[in-house]
Specification:
Shape: elongated
Number of helices: 3
Helix content: over 70%
Radius of gyration: 17 Å
Low-confidence stretches: 1-13
Largest sheet: none
Order of helices and strands: HHH
Length: 106
């Protein structure tokens, strides 16, 4: 992971868009951690391959849901704010969002 403020030009007074839903994200991530431990346990206990793959699929979907939520928050806050200001920061935020979307769809 990279520094949370690596692309934030003013980390001292700006908040990321997800901050209002931080507890929701933390709860979801805690649930995902539990799912990952469950998959680990299934492999350790040599459970049926298809059952493990089903759980991995659920885990992948849960992570993707968090990623899409964070992306939406980023678009609604960081990108919109930068677009209002215009200039190179707007272009940078749009490029960042485009690159994030590209990583998600790979």
């Amino acid at each position: 992971m990279t520094d949370a403020h690596a692309h934030d030009p003013a980390p001292d007074h700006a908040h990321h868009g997800y901050i209002t839903d931080k507890e929701k994200y933390l709860t979801r991530l805690k649930r995902i951690e539990g799912q990952a431990r469950g998959v680990h346990r299934m492999v350790d206990e040599e459970k049926y391959c298809i059952d493990i793959l089903t759980q991995i699929s659920a885990l992948t979907s849960a992570l993707e849901a968090v990623a899409v939520g964070l992306l939406e928050d980023h678009l609604r806050h960081c990108v919109v704010d930068a677009a209002r200001l215009g200039g190179p920061e707007a272009d940078e935020k749009i490029t960042e969002a485009t690159q994030a979307i590209a990583r998600l769809v790979r």
